[in-house]
Amino acid sequence: MNPQSQKVMEILEKHYSGSGTALIYRNSFELLIATILSAQTTDTQVNKITASLFAKYPTPADMAALSEEQLAQEIKGCGLYRNKARNILATVKMLLDEYAGEVPQTREELIRLPGVGRKTANVVLANAFGIPAFGVDTHIFRVANRLALTKSKTPRQTEEQLTGLIRKEKWNAAHHWLIWHGRKICKAQKPLCSDCPVSSLCPGKINKA
After folding, report:
1. C-alpha 34: how far from its chain's center?
2. Do the beta carbons of residue 86 and residue 80 sit within 8 Å?
3. Which DSSP symbol is given to 78?
4. What average pLDDT does the chain have?
5. Residue 15, class by beta-carbon neighbours within 10 Å (0-12 exposed, 13-18 middle, 19+ buried)?
6. For 28-129, which CATH superfamily applies?
7. What is the pLDDT of residues 104-156, one digit of tens each?
8. How far is it, in rounded angstroms, from Cα 176 to Cα 88?
9. Residue 112 DSSP label
10. DSSP 8-state class, residue 113
11. What dihedral angle (degrees, nearest 10) is formed by the CA atoms of 166, 171, 177, 179?
């Protein structure tokens, strides 16, 4: 890691140390479903939906008993809810048929589940199982490129560059530092550069005044 990138990460660690996912969950199954629901939907909205959903249907077997229309109505507060309902039902049935109702603990197995891409798989691995992984969402993609931690055109490139830059034992924590910085300060529109702790190190600084 070059000295500037190292300094950036040290400052972000200081500001966001101890931060974690905003999604509310009690186990790996709930985190898996919540993360699927979070695509194109805020975590706050997902938490509103899952508070009711998980109270009624806490296990894969409970959820699998629903029809696609019933599940769609339960999650209709999130974007693409009908497509998500279809994928979630296919996922819970696969969990029951192939994994005895348990969430698998490898990326290769997770991305076989309908509606689960690499980012979702990495989020589950890191947060549910403590396995080093680096899920790249829109916040991380934006922040990493603005701060010149990466020079990437895709989330996969961002992941590869960040995991090559950051020590493996810090991947899971650093993932949250970058997300929270993107949410609180380095926003897509009107970033709060005057409040940014790494402003002096940012080559992509937008509000230079």
Report:
1. 10
2. no
3. S
4. 95
5. middle
6. Hypothetical protein; domain 2 (1.10.340.30)
7. 999 999 999 999 999 999 999 999 999 999 999 999 999 999 999 999 999 99
8. 25
9. T
10. S
11. 110
